[in-house]
Amino acid sequence: MSAPRIAIVGARRARQGLGPFIARSLRAAGAELVGILGTSEASNAVALADLQRYAGVRPPAVIDLDALAATEPDVLAILSPALTHAAYLDAALARGWHVLCEKPLIWGPGNLATATAEMVERFTEQGLLLFENCQWPQVVPAFEALHGPIERLESFAMRLTPASRGAQMLGDALPHPLSLLQALAPNPAATLGGFEFSTRDPETEELVLEARYGPPGAPIPVRVELRRGATLPREASVTFNGRLARRRVRLEDYAQYLGDGEREVPLPDPLEGHLRVFLQDLEAVRRAARPDLGRYHQPITQRAAMLQAALDAFREHH
Predict the structure, then answer these.
(1) Which of 277, 303, 275 lies closest to 177, judged by CA?
(2) DSSP string, 58-118
(3) pLDDT tens for each residue of 67-103
């Protein structure tokens, strides 16, 4: 089967953008980058400079979807701001493109859980793969190399430093711990509830969420600490069953490690590993005459329902 042809919307490195790094990882894994879509020729010029610097590629750059369609992509990578995702997901459906989408899948007014479930169902009906960019489960092997096997998840904590604040902070960051919970304690019936929030400043730039994940009879205590941060690399840590691992980044070459005190182990780039999984799943879907997309799509719907529950509780708290 031919290499997947991928087009990107949101290829710049502006703000928290991962476009150039995603392009680099996709190319390294064997995909072909055939085009980028920007809002103007000026924004495309910036995007192309970023892609040349970080990914070593300068694909055709266009400013409308019809021109992007002329590049004949198989996949649309939606890396633009979250409020634009729904429109680009609709465009991909109309053109029969698989999608790799930055999290959260859908953002904006209305019920995100309902909107996401409806979107996921439309992709499923058309036999198209929908893949949300939540790479933190790729950290688990390094954590187990540091601390030993996670035989059963009994408690969970995570600390992240998104660039946003308030409710947007939840949208930007919460899919990461949710994807880890799904990976370590998978249960299609699991929910997130019993929320308690605390904030440490009037602008809600530091937020602590405590909740329970899982079925009612065996919930797992969850603690997520979010602190707004504008500098790179961003602080991040995970704690499984009371065992802490902090992400460390060596600035001269951006090599990553997981550490606890003086001990540390190498951390293969989680984004690269996640995108390899995406391309493997894409190949399986493309080869199947009638692909069973439920196992790929159900976690997205479940994450959206948990995110919506957290947003509802946060708004009640505030």
Answers:
(1) 303
(2) ---EESSHHHHHTT--SEEEE-S-GGGHHHHHHHHHHHT-EEEEESSSS-SSS-HHHHHHH
(3) 999 999 999 999 999 999 999 999 999 999 999 999 9
pLDDT at residue 64 is higher than 90 = yes
Cα 221 to Cα 92: distance, rounded to the nearest angstrom: 38
pLDDT of residue 251: 77
| 136: Cα separation from own chain's centroid | 8
Instruction: Calculate the CA 314 to chain-centre distance.
Output: 21
Contacts of 133 (CB under 8 A, 6+ apart): 18, 22, 79, 100, 101, 102, 103, 274
Report residue 173 CA to chain centroid gap. Answer: 9
**Of 195, 155, 226, 176, residue with least CA distance to 310:** 195
Query: Rounded to the nearest 10 degrees, what angle do helices 294-317 and 112-125 cross at?
Result: 170
pLDDT of residue 101: 98
Q: What single-letter amino acid sits at 168?
A: Q
Tokens 């995406």 locate to 278
Which domains are delineated in the chain? 5-133+274-293 (3.40.50.720), 136-268+307-317 (3.30.360)
User: Average pLDDT of 51-76?
Assistant: 95
What is the rounded end-to-end Cα distance, in angstroms, of the chain? 52
Query: Do 317 and 197 form a contact (C-beta atoms < 8 A)?
Result: yes
Helix (H) or strand (E) holding 249: strand 243-250
Please tell me what DSSP assigns to residue 314: H
**What does pTM read for this prediction?**
0.95
CA distance 9 to 78: 5
pLDDT digit string, tens, across residues 213-259: 998 788 999 999 999 987 777 899 999 999 999 999 987 778 999 99
DSSP H helical ranges for the chain: 19-28, 41-55, 65-69, 85-95, 112-125, 140-147, 166-173, 175-184, 270-287, 294-317
